[in-house]
C-alpha cells in the first residue's frame, strides 16, 4: 500500500488496498499528486489508473477520466470500477461523450 491507496481509495473497488474515501472527503490536490507519483513508479498498475480516473471525474474532466479508465482496462480487462465508470459516463455523462 502506498500514499495513493490511502488518499484515493475508490468505494466498492475490490482491488482497493485501503478504506474507501468518499468524493466529498477527497483532498483533491494531494490525492492527485499521490496518484501521479504512484503511476510514475508503477505505470502498469491498473488500480492507480482507476484512482486517477476517479479524481479526474471529481475534477470534472470526463475525457481524461475515460482515458485513465481505458488504460486501467487495458491492464485489467475486467476491472469492475473502471467498467462501471465508463458505462456511467457513456450513458449519464455529458451529451458530447454519449456519442463516442
Question: What's the short story on this structure?
Answer:
The protein has 100 residues and is mostly helical.
Describe this structure in words.
The termini are far apart. This protein has helices at 3-8, 28-41, 46-58, 62-75, 80-92, 95-98. The chain has a single domain (3-98), classed as Alpha Horseshoe (Serine Threonine Protein Phosphatase 5, Tetratricopeptide repeat). The chain is built from six helices and no strands. The protein is globular. The protein is an all-alpha fold and 100 residues long.
Look up the CATH topology. Answer: Serine Threonine Protein Phosphatase 5, Tetratricopeptide repeat
Mind telling me the CATH class?
Mainly Alpha
Number of strands: 0
Strand content: under 5%
Report how far the terminal alpha carbons are from each other.
35 Å
So how many helices? 6
